[in-house]
From TrEMBL:
<dbReference type="Pfam" id="PF00128">
    <property type="entry name" value="Alpha-amylase"/>
</dbReference>
<dbReference type="GO" id="GO:0004556">
    <property type="term" value="F:alpha-amylase activity"/>
</dbReference>
<dbReference type="GO" id="GO:0009313">
    <property type="term" value="P:oligosaccharide catabolic process"/>
</dbReference>
<keyword id="KW-0326">Glycosidase</keyword>
<dbReference type="InterPro" id="IPR013780">
    <property type="entry name" value="Glyco_hydro_b"/>
</dbReference>
<dbReference type="InterPro" id="IPR045857">
    <property type="entry name" value="O16G_dom_2"/>
</dbReference>
<protein>
    <submittedName>
        <fullName>Alpha amylase, catalytic region</fullName>
    </submittedName>
</protein>
<dbReference type="InterPro" id="IPR006047">
    <property type="entry name" value="GH13_cat_dom"/>
</dbReference>
<dbReference type="InterPro" id="IPR017853">
    <property type="entry name" value="GH"/>
</dbReference>
<feature type="domain" description="Glycosyl hydrolase family 13 catalytic">
    <location>
        <begin position="13"/>
        <end position="417"/>
    </location>
</feature>
<comment type="similarity">
    <text>Belongs to the glycosyl hydrolase 13 family.</text>
</comment>
<keyword id="KW-0378">Hydrolase</keyword>
Length: 552
């Protein structure tokens, strides 16, 4: 396995709007991030990934970009950004930005031009199609509800938007569009940024014959019509050969529809495309046939299978990304742990998992202090366009709204977007003014300041686990073998290289369990998420142990 800095990196993801407000407008900003760089560096992370900070009308919080070479007003100025980059580098960390190449804002100059006339030079920057029998060109549904087609009166045609109608899809078939994106990438690389996380990269090539979907299961529609289109690898290879190959940077592509059948095609090293991808195998594990608003109980054997199969797929050629949540998903301790009786233990167990699997690991802001889901009593307190649109659709469909609110509590993307909880002052130390989205009321108990003081806190456990991973390359590059694959309670695996050998035991339940397999060699307890360490094979509720196996 070839070594690379980005394979060894621990990435910390920032959602700038919710991280730290420096100027009392209730919105997180770049100077706020700068204020907290010492904190981030104290975690031991190597790379910071910031969600989009470009000029944007914020229909989808920055994932709708109106100028790719400028900074969002609320977040600061280009001078602030340049300072951020310098300060990150001064602390020996790297900065990765979010690239949103699949769509722009409808307020982008390209789109403003494009809609003017059918012969405008920018017309083909987007997908414009005539209607069909008085309606949209086809029956495709949008990620954010409704049709993917929006009628525009000026030219009496429809444009494609897989996300909100303020996020028109860029036409990647047009070489000029591709060149524009490559120029933008170069603009940021030449400033010295260290890589891109690429938003919905799997969607840049789609079925442009636009056939009607003959199924209604949304995830199925994504894979069949929207994702992994016929030219996606041609485009990525071109992007790599024209731009990426010239810089020492990292890339991680995100995408619906990326799965075990096609994942290796994106990241195989010989293929010269991306370094890593985020797949959603475990992110959709609790979705029923009706999608994310149709919740089912997730099962540990399925969860383990996702990690096992991806590790197997990429172990020879490629590299994995290990993450349990981000700004689009519920809080990890609420979803995969027990945020009530075993909040602290289960948050630490998840940290143990994140930091002991093979692949580059990503921690989302707030997970390092065990931030939890929020349950606002009214839909009025939600902000996410996806949640709000689903709410309207559910109302229109006559669904019982009390029940729907409960699903919103479980699944809204706003769970991950409540302000970072810095201390127990009003608004959790995020801002001195009312934030754009309410702080989780548990900020009194869950915050950075109190955990700084507590040697047994989740925060200090993250630091310890990060140090442990960094001092043991076996946890980065070493082999991986899962035991008891079908066991519904325990996640057990070994990691080893020619220097060291580890056995990791994770109890994903509320009760005690004894691990009964025989292990050759002497076991030395290295990491334990309970402060009353116990080196027996008994695991307390949500207990995590890492043993070093000696003389095996
Ligand atoms: O998300 C892509 C994506 O697939 C999401 O729609 C995901 O399925 C959903 O959020 C799960 O609830 C990316 C960004 O991460 C997201 O924040 C953006 O809204 C989206 O792209 C559009 O740019
Ligand atoms: Ca601000």
């Amino acid at each position: 396995m070839k070594k690379n800095w980005w394979k060894e990196s621990i990435v910390y993801q920032i959602y700038p709007r919710s991280f730290k407000d420096s100027n009392k407008d209730g919105i997180g900003d770049i100077p706020g991030i700068i204020e907290k760089l010492d904190y981030i560096s104290s975690l031991g992370v190597d790379v910071i990934w910031v969600c989009p900070v470009y000029k944007s009308p914020n229909d989808d919080n920055g994932y709708d970009i109106s100028d790719y070479r400028d900074i969002m007003n609320e977040f600061g100025t280009m001078t602030d950004f340049d300072k951020l980059l310098t300060e990150v580098h001064l602390r020996d960390m790297k900065l990765v930005m979010d690239l949103v190449p699949n769509h722009s804002s409808d307020e982008h100059f390209w789109f403003q031009e494009s809609r003017k006339s059918k012969d405008n030079p920018y017309r083909d920057y987007y997908y414009w199609r005539p209607g069909y029998q008085g309606g949209p060109p086809n029956n495709w549904p949008s990620f954010f509800g409704g049709s993917v087609w929006q009628y525009d009166e000026i030219t009496e045609e429809y444009y494609l938007h897989l996300f909100s109608k303020k996020q028109p899809d860029l036409n990647w078939e047009n070489p000029k569009v591709r060149q524009e994106i490559y120029d933008i990438m170069r603009f940021w690389f030449d400033k010295g940024i260290d890589g891109f996380r690429m938003d919905v990269i799997s969607l840049i090539s789609k079925r442009i014959d636009f056939p009607d979907a003959d199924i209604n299961q949304f995830n199925e529609i994504i894979t069949r019509y929207y994702a992994n289109g016929p030219r996606v690898h041609e485009f990525l290879k071109e992007m790599h050969d024209r731009v990426l190959c010239e810089y020492d940077i990292m890339t991680v592509g995100e995408g619906p529809g990326i799965d075990l059948a096609n994942g290796a095609e994106y990241v195989g090293e010989s293929r010269g495309q991306l370094n890593m991808i985020f797949h959603f195998g475990h992110m959709f594990i609790d979705n029923g046939p009706g999608g994310k608003y149709d919740k089912i109980q997730w099962l540990l054997p399925d969860f383990k299978r996702v990690f096992n199969e991806w590790d197997e797929l990429l172990k020879e050629d490629g590299w994995g990304s290990i993450f349990l949540g981000n700004h689009d998903f519920p809080r990890i301790v609420s979803r995969f742990g027990n945020d009530r009786e075993y909040w602290k233990e289960s948050a630490k167990l998840l940290a143990t998992l994140l930091l002991s699997l093979r692949g580059t690991t990503y921690t989302y802001q707030g997970d390092e202090i065990g931030m939890t889901n929020v349950a606002h009593l009214s839909i009025e307190d939600y902000r996410d366009i996806e949640t709000l649109n689903s709410w309207k659709e559910a109302e229109a469909a006559g669904r019982p709204m009390d029940d729907f609110l409960k699903i919103v509590h479980l699944n809204s993307r706003d769970n991950a977007r409540t302000p970072m909880q810095w201390d127990d002052s009003t608004y959790g130390g995020f801002s001195l003014e009312q934030p754009w989205i309410k702080v989780n009321p548990n900020y009194n108990n869950i915050n950075v300041a109190s955990q700084e003081e507590d040697p047994d806190s989740i925060l200090n456990y993250y630091r310890k686990m990060i140090r442990f991973r960094k001092s043991n390359p076996a946890l980065v590059y070493g082999d991986y073998k899962c035991h008891l694959k079908e066991d519904p309670n325990l996640f057990v695996y070994e990691r080893w290289d020619d220097q060291k050998h580890f056995l990791i035991l994770l109890n994903f339940t509320d009760h005690e369990i004894e691990y009964q397999e025989e292990i050759k060699g002497r076991l030395e307890l290295k990491i334990n998420n309970y402060n009353t360490r116990n080196k027996s094979m008994w695991l307390r509720p949500w207990e995590a142990k890492i043993f070093e196996v000696i003389n095996s």
